[in-house]
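Fig. S4 source data, part A: sequence.
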Amino acid sequence: MPALVVVGAQWGDEGKGKIVHWLASRARMVVRYQGGDNAGHTVVFGGKSFALHSIPSGILVPGALSVLGNGVILNPRALRGEARALERAGIRVRGRLFISPLCHMILPTHLLLDALREEGAPPAQRTSRRAGALGPLGAAGRGIGTTKKGIGPCYEDKIARIGIRLCDYLDKPLFEELVERNLGLRSAELSRLKPLRRIRQEVFEGYGGLCAFLRPFVADASLLIEEALSRGRNVLFEGAQGAMLDVDFGTYPFVTSSSPAAGGACVGAGVGPTRIGAVLGVSKAYTTRVGLGPFPTEITGRVGRCIREVGREYGTTTGRPRRIGWLDLVQLKYALRVGGIGALAITKLDTLSGIHPLRVCASYRLGRRRVEDFPCSRREVLDAEPVYEELPGFSGDISKSRSFEALPKGARDYILFIEKRLGVKAAVVSVGQSREQTIARASRDALWGA
């Protein structure tokens, strides 16, 4: 099957952008299937660094087409800015980017609602079994550490069946009617921020120019994908965020509003599950998380600060410092299972150079119990205490290594330990930001399931 899904196997920021860019040389089409411009993929290409938010990483590969599937939500102003920045950098977007007319639109109203709900709530705190069953994590209206990009409110409108799709946005009379309806429905919240008249002006500001920008990109994404697959062309599906931020399987309620898991590619791009040939998960050699929510292996102090600075662990979208943790095999096994992940790409191995020893979480302790499966209960996730195994570290600059054998023994042993415990192959090992700093332990054709 010529369809490969690339998913984040942790809490996002795993380096999917680089891996997708590396794989896209074999792809006719790269499809983004969920999320919005809250996602951030940093790709180093041709000596330049590109920060992508809505447009798939495949746009940087000249021979590949980029598609935004129906599961993606669009901020038209942000998309136009991103496209213009790429064009200024010499990357052609027109004629290579296609957008499903079924994508829902992020409007200024969604940004206002997102900020209101985040900033108008006291910060959530860690709870324990001594707290109430819900504790501060369960109260409605509490902030969860979003990017304030309007993602949650937009998906909320979609599920409530009052969302505005791209095809509706481009129909001016219908768009005006839908905006008036939605302003009425949200007036109680929105009027706390500013007069509705002013909000209405913001929604329609520059509307004509945005429509003129968007129209050339609109295409039946599902049909384009089907035609490519029917011709035997490789199609690469790119998820945003990661498995642990999935609205169903993640650390709820500290999750995104869509399904980054591999199954989300089917509903978010309009393809049947029988068309998917393989799933590649992307994991860092350690763990990070942005924003609030449980994080069992989180580490602070000197080691955490060192990993953050060496790995430049700051959010692409917000610039927020990422929380740092040791590799969590309990969490990864869970992500492999719910995502059907058949192989891993491990990134940021170079960041761990010089750290001795390396710790890996092999199980959790919950009271007197020792568990190896990721808990569902929000209280148990918070109370989970990691049980670590220690491995010797490694030293030296490994960023120039281009084969597994060229890595120091400690680095090789670390990768082999992960493989043995998870039961999947680390088919790709990344030792730096650029596409060239990649060690392939399986051919790219093999990763496609060929």
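Fig. S4 source data, part B ends here. Confidence is low (pLDDT under 50) at residues 121-141.
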